[in-house]
Each structure stands twice: as C-alpha cells, then as structure tokens.
Amino acid sequence: MLFDLDDTLINRNQAVENLFFIILEKCYRDLNHVAQQHMLQKFKLYDHSSYGNGDKVKVLELFFDEFPPNHRLPRNDLQDFWNNHFPKCFSIDKETIHIVNTIKLHAKVGIITNGSTQRQNAKIKNTSLNSCFDIILISDEVGFSKPDNRIFELALNKLHVQPEDTLFVGDDLEKDIAGCQNANIKGVWFNPEMTKNDTEIKPFAEINSLDGLLSYFT
Hints:
Distance between the termini: 15 Å
Structural class: alpha/beta
Largest sheet: 6 strands, parallel
Strand order of the largest sheet: 3-2-1-4-5-6
Number of strands: 6
Order of helices and strands: EHHHHHEHEHHEHEE
Number of helices: 9
Strand content: 5-15%
Radius of gyration: 18 Å
C-alpha cells in the first residue's frame, strides 16, 4: 500500500496555519482577531497558488506587499525561513501511525510525494514517519513527479510488487488517483471533506478517514 504525504498522512492545511502564526509573531504587532483571520485566508491563497513549486519567496513577498509588516524579513532569507520553519509546523496523529503500523503487518508500505527533498524529508523525520515505511520516494530526489507513471513504477520495482497487488492512497484526484491508474495501480481517494468529484477520474474506492483502509486486511 502506497501513500501520498501532504493532506493524506499529514495535515498540510494546519501546518500552513501554524507557519502563518510564526510569521505573525515575528513580523507583526497588535493585530486584532478579525485582521488576523483575514490575513490568514490571504496567506493560504498565496500558498495554494504556489503549491507544487519549491520556490516560496514569491508567496512571502506577495503577502508582505499586501500586508506591510512591522518587521519585514530580508528577501534573501525568505526561502531559508520557509525551509527551516515549515517542516516543523507539521504534526502526526497517533491514530495515523497506528493505522500504518497495522497495515504494515499485512503489506509493504511506502510514500510517494512531490516536493523538495529537504522539506519533505524534514516533514517525514519531524513526524517520525521515516520509521514506519519500507520506501519513501520524493519527486525532487528521483526526477519524476506525480502524476508521471514512472514514479509509481519505481516504487513497484523497489518493493518488488505487481501493480495489481497494490493500492495507492491520496487526496489529489489528478496527481494521485489518475497518476497511479496510469501505472495500473488501483487508486483510493482520501476525501475527508467529502468533496464532490466533478472530474472524469474514477477512483477504485473512496474513504473519508484512513481507518477505512483497515477493511482491506480484516
């Protein structure tokens, strides 16, 4: 069983909020709750627009341009600030660890994630996920990004398993589900918000919580 990382095993949206409040503490003073919430929503929009792009300087520059801070971080420091702080903003749900370890009793488990090697490795290490998985593939490291079927095929080769014996679990219909299907792997759509599927992509299955995966082994 193969997993996506962000917004599947770990909550990226919560991490973005955590990073925002670090920025608030470092760069702003005396903001009321309404102003903070408005800025948070704008920060999330800027982050979302750059999702999948490793260069986060533009996100912070645009945010600071719209909301001039009391203390502005130097432009040369912005990427390092993001790289150093964002991975530490992630936490792991103990139930997620339990589910993965339970599945590992019955099947090989791996992570396939898009993103920079430095940041993704830091997230995985900070949440102790590195000890749970047989393989971890990061797009920046291997040279292929989801939905490219080659990154999925690489995982199959490393685990010595066949596509028909494999499931991939992810939240992104295009990158995760269509991507794994291009490698003849069944895709399980992780959809905790119960978002309507308006695409032509048809997952093998849909789950709203990760414990739904345990039914495949019991």
